[in-house]
Structures are given as C-alpha cells and as structure tokens.
Amino acid sequence: MDKLGLVRDIDLALHLPLRYEDETRLTPIAALREGDTAQVEGVVSSCVVESRTRRQLVVRLVEGRAELVLRFVHFFPSHQKTLAVGARVRARGEVRAGFFGREMVHPVFKAVPEGGAPLAEALTPVYPASAQLPQAYLRKAVESGLRRAPLDEVLPAGVVPRDLPALRDALQLLHHPPVGTSAWQLEERSHPAWARIKFDELLAQQLSQLTAQRERARLRAPVLAAVHGQGAPGSLHARLLAALPFGLTGAQQRVCAEIAADLARPQPMHRLLQGDVGSGKTVVAALSAAVAIDAGWQCALMAPTEILAEQHFRKLLQWLEPLGIGVAWLTGSRKGKARAAMLERVASGEAALVVGTHAVIQQEVQFARLGLAVIDEQHRFGVAQRLALRRKLAEQALEPHLLMMSATPIPRTLAMSYFADLDVSTIDELPPGRTPIVTRVFADGRRDEIIERVRDEVAKGRQVYWVVPLIEESEALDLQNATETHARLAAAFDGVAVGLLHGRMASSDKAAVMAEFSSGRMSVLVATTVIEVGVDVPNASVMVIEHAERFGLAQLHQLRGRVGRGAVASVCVLLYTSPLSPTGRERLKAMAETTDGFEIARRDLEIRGPGEFMGARQSGDALLRFADLGQDGTLLERARAVAPALLERHPAAAAAHIQRWLGGRMEFLKA
C-alpha cells in the first residue's frame, strides 16, 4: 500500500478508478457479438485440460442451446474446482472468435450459488494496483478509507464553482457509479464529478505555490546593486558590455533589466530565464553575474554535464578574466590538489565566479559570500537535486538570488501551474546572422545517400555532427553503437578527420576531441547526446541524428540547435528505423514542421504529459494525478482566480486543503 502512496484514509478515498467493469447486467450467450465485453451466466458442460503447444484449461459454458468457450492458459487447481461440470458460473470478458466458436480468454469468473446471486447495483471500479495487491483487496481497502476519511467541505462558500458537486458526492459517484452513468464520461474524466476532483487538485497546487512564494518573500537576500550603479561607466557590468564582440538583442536587454531589478531587491529572486536554442542566455547570465560581483558577492553557475559546464567556463573565462575577475572550475572529475586549490579559492572569495556541475553543491564546497546561483538547463536536474541546491543556499544567513535557465520553453498552462511561484523572463529573439535550419526526415535505408551529401558539405569546408543514441550494442533495441558508426564513417570519408565522443570517455579525452572539432581541424564528429546542449561551433552546418525515433522531442530540438549558429545554411537530418510508433511519428512530424521552440514545447507537452516534461519522474511523484493541463485550462484559470483571496482571507482552510490533496508532496512543487 505504501508503494502506491496509500498511507492515510484520504489517500485511499482519492485513489480513483482507472476504468470500470459493468457487472450490473447479464447478456444472453446467444446474443454475444465478437468484440463485445460482456457478462454472461451459464452452466459448465465440460472442463478439460488440453495439451497443445502448452497446457490450457478449456471450459464450455451453456445457456439453453447457446455455448461459449472459456479458455485459460494460466490456471490453478482452484479454477478447476470452481469450474467443475454442472456448476453455475458467471463470467465476464471480451468475446472473440475461436476455432470452436465464440470464446473468452482469461475471463473474470465466480460461482453462482443455488437460487442465484444479485447483480451489482453500480459499475465495478478497477483501481491502479501493484502486483502484490489484487483488485478485491484494494476495493475493500478503498471502501474502508472512503467511509473513514474526513470528506466534509473545508473550502468556504463561493470558492468552488456552483456547477460542481460536493466533494463527498463526487468521490462516492466515482467509486460507485450508479446504473446509467456514462462509463465513457467517467473513463474520459469529463464527468462533473471528475471536474470537482481536478478543480480541488489544481487549487491545492496553486495554494501551495502561492504559499511558497509568500515564504520566499519573507526571506532576506543581499541587495546586489553595483557600487557605481548598473551600467555606470566604471561598473563591471558596463566594462563587460563594452568588451563583448557583439551587441545585445532587444530581448536580451529587456531580460537583463528584469534580472537586475530583482537583484536590487532585499527579497531573493526566483526567476526562470527561458529562450530558444542559441538565443544568448549565457551572456545574460554573465551580465547578471557581473552585477553580483560588482556588489561584492560571489556567483555560482551550475550545468548538468561537464561538457556544458566547461563550455560555459571557457566562455566566461574569456569574457571576465581580462576584466580581473577570478573564475573557478568545479566538477566531479577534478580531484586532488587541483580540487583543493579550487575549494580554497571559493572559500576565500578569491573566485568571484564558480562554474561547474552538481559538484558545486557538494557538502565540502563553502562559499565566502554567495549572492547569486544560476542553474542552466534546470529541468535536466532531478527534483531531489534542485531541492538539495535550495537547502544548500538556505544554509547562509542571507538567501542567494536564484536564476534558472532553460532552452526548453515552458508552455503557458505549465507556467501557470508548476511555475506559479516563479517570475519568467523570455528571450524571444535570436541574434542576427543566424540562418534558418532545414529539417529533413529519411528512412534508415537512405543512409548511403546521406553520407554522399555529408561528403559534399565536408568538401566545402563545413563540419558535421553525427549523433547516435547508444554507446554499447543493445540486442533489445538493435541500434548501431557509436564505435561502429565511427569506424564506418572513417572508412567512408577517407582522408577526413572523423572524431568520436561519448559519455564513457575521460574528461580530458572529451575536451581534446571537442578542441579539435571547435578549431576546425576535425570535420566530422560522431557523438552520443553529450553534445546535446551548449556546444557552439559556428562552422557546423549538418546534424545527422540516427534512430531519431528513440529521442525525445526536446532532445531532438536541442541537438538540432547545435547547427545554424553561423551564417551558413544548415540542415538537420533525422534518420529513423521502421516501424515507427505513433509517438515517434508525432515527434518527427513536429520536428519537420517547425523550428519554433515554443511550438515544439507545446507539442512535447501534448505527447509526454507534464510529469515527464518537467523531469518529475526523477522524483518518483507525478506532479498532477488527475488534472490534464492540455484539457483542463478552464479549471486551472478558475483555481488561479480564487487562490489568492482564499489564502489571504481563510488561511486555515487553505492549509487544510493543501494538506488533504498534497500531503508530503508539497516540497516537490517548490523545486
């Protein structure tokens, strides 16, 4: 029960059915049609174990002159006892055409006592279960929880929309739908009883986010206003801006101003900076760091992979070191004296900017004065890691400001729901000089044709990424590994430097390969998804992704963003292996139809659902169990509208509602 999260009576009451079985009526065996799911009653005329390719229990059930075969591939002696010849039996299952007429395979069955048995008066619920919990046990437990759970209304009058039923009535109907209730409406979750459940869940989530926002507003953060004033001639911010080899776009200027305004307040910033691949988030992070450093505080920048962290480190070092700013580099692979020296620089404050992976938040890392933490690709960190970072930051007397960056734009409904306590800044403009990327989808059989096209690009002095999804051979997926592909391409491109990059290489080897490719000395780079984010090679004009159907939509969009970073026309080739699943087909279709990150994110949310989109699966908790942001936008708007006043005027009711619906899951919403 614990595995299913069924700890409290209210948890059992809120453990709602996946579907229903109609045991309220009997269908005559003579009236059965192929494809029907029906309940029948009859007398067993024969019960034999047949030895075919494997042993099967074959039972013949008769009603008058009509006959139905019940077939069991897996069976026990108890089956034969209940289904003995002459026994009256009630069975329910899907009717299909068998070799000897109509049959049901593995139907649900039970003996009918002499004198008959009453039919169910409501649809029979089928609950989400685990292997250890049979439905019969779960039904009894849920029924018991439903009786004991406190289901009185805790919300004041006027909060719940008038067209929705009382919570107790809604739950009673969902667990025991009366005869005549539309099973389709129940299973599609469009019944008014479902609307009440979804509204309450969304309201609890909104209240939780508002509570977190108010708690944060009570915290104190350093006021990061530059000594000379941001943008003043002598400020680090102004000197960095002047030293950059490019000008900021209007969108970058706007978000820099939004972040600077937050940093100048005594409350901790909690802001998400979102922008499509290549929109220039790193320079915004650098300018934000300059404001913090100018005010005498440290800044930490955390990235999910060493390659991305190193990319940031090199770029920031190039921009800030000439201005006299100390930059430290911390990753898990840095050991011994080099690591100790870096830790000392961080602890003393000599390193004003600290760049690294999750190693930045490890226990032994002590900051002198951490004023700003920047998390890049924040959705790539598990919920537990994001919570660990927030706890780490909270160890200080003053809470640092927090800037999260994402190249996976957040669809509006998701932002309204999961990011209700976040301020969002959006870079909705790409730097000038970027060329549109053309996306082509090809079956794997046209690989040789693609190789020829790649050879033409290399001959023009262009560079090519060739991405493969696995490092080692997998019999289950039958995918070619990076090593095999590298060997094949090296043979095909005689005289051309073809590199290999994968996650199991030592950091120094990865860095050496990337340096070769970045410098242009290497023309083709065969890589796993370690190059997914952050790698910036303007001369790369072709991205080939093998087995593209195996990648997520956001991942495909990120990989595509590695090309088109210069003035050269670029192409992304998606190679797929048949047969395509419906999900795989949808992903490739979306990639071929749009390069807009927001549209990609919207479709990704549709395909995957919010839990996976957010990386919630890494926490083991679904963020929304009942509501669907794609369909329940109206209910979300209603919940958002009433939440602030409810929290303000009826804090006890709001707290009771949050506890009822979220219990111990509130922390995950804060991450």
Describe it for me?
Belongs to the helicase family. RecG subfamily. Keywords: ATP-binding, DNA damage, DNA recombination, DNA repair, DNA-binding, Helicase, Hydrolase, Isomerase, Nucleotide-binding. It is an enzyme of class 5 (isomerase). Among the domains are: 2-18 and 135-188, no CATH class; 25-119, Beta Barrel (OB fold (Dihydrolipoamide Acetyltransferase, E2P)); 437-594, Rossmann fold (3-Layer(aba) Sandwich). Helix content is 38%, strand content 19%. The strands form 4 sheets. It has a 7-stranded parallel sheet with strand order 11-12-10-13-14-9-15, with helices on both faces. Helix 6 (192-218) crosses helix 22. The radius of gyration is 31 Å and the shape is globular.
Question: What's the gist of this structure?
Answer:
With 671 residues, the protein is of the alpha/beta class. The chain has 23 helices and 21 strands. Among the domains are: 2-18 and 135-188, no CATH class; 25-119, OB fold (Dihydrolipoamide Acetyltransferase, E2P), CATH 2.40.50.140; 437-594, P-loop containing nucleotide triphosphate hydrolases (Rossmann fold).
